[in-house]
Amino acid sequence: xxxxxxxxxxxxxxxxxxxxxxxxxxxxxxxxxxxxxxxxxxxxxxxxxxxxxxxxxxxxxxxxxxxxxxxxxxxxxxxxxxxxxxxxxxxxxxxxxxxxxxxxxxxxxxxxxxxxxxxxxxxxxxxxxxxxxxxxxxxxxxxxxxxxxxxxxxxxxxxxxxxxxxxxxxxxxxxxxxxxxxxxxxxxxxxxxxxxxxxxxxxxxxxxxxxxxxxxxxxxxxxxxxxxxxxxxxxxxxxxxxxxxxxxxxxxxxxxxxxxxxxxxxxxxxxxxxxxxxxxxxxxxxxxxxxxxxxxxxxxxxxxxxxxxxxxxxxxxxxxxxxxxxxxxxxxxxxxxxxxxxxxxxxxxxxxxxxxxxxxxxxxxxxxxxxxxxxxxxxxxxxxxxxxxxxxxxxxxxxxxxxxxxxxxxxxxxxxxxxxxxxxxxxxxxxxxxxxxxxxxxxxxxxxxxxxxxxxxxxxxxxxxxxxxxxxxxxxxxxxxxxxxxxxxxxxxxxxxxxxxxxxxxxxxxxxxxxxxxxxxxxxxxxxxxxxxxxxxxxxxxxxxxxxxxxxxxxxxxxxxxxxxxxxxxxxxxxxxxxxxxxxxxxxxxxxxxxxxxxxxxxxxxxxxxxxxxxxxxxxxxxxxxxxxxxxxxxxxxxxxxxxxxxxxxxxxxxxxxxxxxxxxxxxxxxxxxxxxxxxxxxxxxxxxxxxxxxxxxxxxxxxxxxxxxxxxxxxxxxxxxxxxxxxxxxxxxxxxxxxxxxxxxxxxxxxxxxxxxxxxxxxxxxxxxxxxxxxxxxxxxxxxx
Length: 786
What we know:
- By secondary structure, this protein is α+β, with helices and mostly antiparallel strands.
- Helix content is 42%, strand content 25%.
- The chain contains 24 helices and 27 strands.
- The strands form six sheets. It has a five-stranded antiparallel β-sheet with strand order 2-1-5-4-3, sandwiched between helices. It has a five-stranded antiparallel β-sheet with strand order 7-6-10-9-8, sandwiched between helices. A five-stranded antiparallel β-sheet has the order 12-11-15-14-13, sandwiched between helices.
- α15 crosses α18 and α16 (498-513) packs parallel to α17.
- The longest helix is centred in the middle third of the chain and has 40 residues, at 410-449.
- The protein is elongated and about 155 Å long.
- Residues 596-603 and 648-661 have low confidence and may be disordered.
């Protein structure tokens, strides 16, 4: 809007007057233009005002506070930016200061910026006198952020103070001389009779003692700088009132030195009283259970923990808490034949199919003997969804009762037990035995018909050999597992060149793998040197072979990698594959017997599910451990460790190569008697030995074997079958040993069960070999004795 000429001229006059006044002030005050340049550069707001606080000069920092260019503030009353509640204060002090009254030079107020933001500022003013009159110079500092920080600190302090006072347990802060320097209300209420608490020694006010307590967590904390907790009694009115849990925590300086100690006090009188009452009740119940010959258990279904009372351990010969409170520990002590039945009955009760859990089973005592237990239980707790969370019950020793019952029904129960074992065996193994047996019988029948070509015959024989090997593997697995579970498996330590083993395994498995779309790789950490360790040769190869067989079985395409790495004190082997993988919920059971990674594939992939269980048993027997990392569809990564015993270069040089064909020169000098009642076994032994030994004698029974030895003194060696008609191999060996103490006898049997080796050797045999007999193994055994 255009101004009238009179108004415009008036403004020019006023502006001219302000400039003249400012210049006059500058000249008379002695300020130079450079002084104003300094003011302009100052980070603090500066203004010069004349009458009525009209701004004659303002620097940039003041403009930034108000939110306007400094030149736009010239000629305006500074108070227009001051908030309403502070305007009167500014006016009063402005007038009082101009009158020479003694008032504070600095004070805080709030101003509004051009953007509407309210700011906290600190205002410092001074009066300048001269021929130019009275001028007010003011320094204005933005303290908005400072005020915000101060408020935040105050709020935090108030919060911590409220928190400190509201905690429903006692808190006491002590200095290093055990003197109380701060407490909360709980402590003041707890020790009201001892008030004031601050300034006194803690043992004086809290325990009414004149010297340090004999058991004091605070002293321990001062000594070692660590938290400590003790349960101590407290006294009121001259007598013990209850119990407190006293915890002491160090407060450390930046130089890791203790500056003070926080004592945290919790009144646990009710808890301790309840604990004492519970102990009395438990002791009473324990005595009742002892009289009833019972032990109690409490199974937490959520955590898997199982609590056992002292009588539970005692009745089985264990010390209290001798084994962990875990379901797995309990299951491991159940007789293998009863384990599945016990857990099945428990599951049916948990599913609501039975009103009570009731089972009779055999439980392994500490002395390895089994006792009969009557287990009874019932669900005592459920969650909001009605799912059982807790099962409690008792165990009663019914061994004596069972013995009486067994004596009365021995014949019947023996038959039933035989039936049950037979059914269980057939259920687990029928597929693994019938399938290769079908192959052997079917292709043998095709061969006997005589209508096959040479190529077909060779292929049929290959199938028969593979089927026989598969069935033999299954039987060997069963035998190994039974030895492991009975603790009768032995370890035979010898020096092993790991790189040689890997070369052998690569050559062994490569032909099978190369027919599949799989890359096979062997990783040796030290390929150019002999890596010698002392361990069980056969078991190590069995473990690696089991893992390789699984990898090949479950991998259709991709890669299989086997390798090892050396660590301090142990060697770690691994077998990785890109196969079907193992789901997370199955990984904890794959090392159990008869278990495969996925129950839905047991018909698709052959195997009894014994390999991993046996491998785990071998590894643990050799002092190592095994684990797996896997996911469904992403392959499996098996690792196991065994102790590492490295050998010196001198020791390495004395180690002979393994897997070489045995030396036949010794056998060519021998006259050998084959005592065997099975025609096919007799024929097999004769065929593998006839071209290598001097002469062969044959006997179809123990009686015939004894007679041949009586009549032929030139016999050097007897291959004695243990199970023969008329007279078994044990008796025949004893009779022959009396006649010929010098003759060598090697027992051979198809049983290979626990204790057979000792029985064979004690009968007079020099050695022992299991059927089916491998030619190389037989030659090695013979060479040991000649």
